[in-house]
Amino acid sequence: MKIVVIGGTGLIGSKVVDTLKQQGHEAVAASPNTGVNTVTGEGLATALAGAEVVIDVSNSPSFEEQAAMDFFATAGRNLTEGEIAAGVRHHVALSVVGTDRLQDSGYFRAKLAQEQAIKASPIPYTLVRATQFFEFLRQIAQGATLDGSVRLPAVTFQPIAADDVARAIVDLALAPPANAMIELAGPETFTLDEPIRRVLAWDEDTRPVIVDPSAPYFGVQVDDKSLVPEADAWLGSTKLDWWLAKVPPPKR
Known about the structure:
The protein has helices at 11-22, 44-48, 65-86, 106-120, 137-143, 162-174, 193-202, 240-246, and strands at 2-6, 26-30, 53-56, 90-96, 125-130, 145-146, 149-152, 156-157, 181-185, 190-191, 209-211, 234-235. By secondary structure, it is of the alpha/beta class.
């Protein structure tokens, strides 16, 4: 079938597109650099024509509340209108575990508004909330660095490999719409500081990691339940040590 992947050239989207093509589907990578812009509507109708499923793994280019709210509202409205016109039968969207518990963040208020709009849309849907990706652990360390030290709260944390997220999204997109929320997480549970220590050690990065109960997570205070899924989450298979050994770090 024809499946359009919004954000199809990004970290998750490119993996979703590749997996769908390997399974024999017509996967269209839709993003501004392929001529499809969900905010302006450029190229959207052409991309959606004949599609049965739309997978939206795009993200706001800004984490500032109003910019993120505007992005998700405008892109979501354009997508819904385009999907109705094209006869799309299943909308799959990627979100974040803990979105409803991180409402002190303007970005997560925008994400929650996006989720609510998808639920209110006439298009059958599957909402997929994933925990933080292994691929962003280095960014967490960078964002938590203060005066040469990485300061993090020791809250429960269950990150997942991007490959596992992409595989799950493909499986869910090919299944009937759940009209519900599905949560994804990694197979191992840590405290937030532990995988950061492992990544920095692997990189031979000498920054010390300090457990600080008052330290924020991207500007938000978190507790032991903020970043982890409910008990019935779908679990990936990739463990952190395997990922560190097999997946090269991004080029500097």
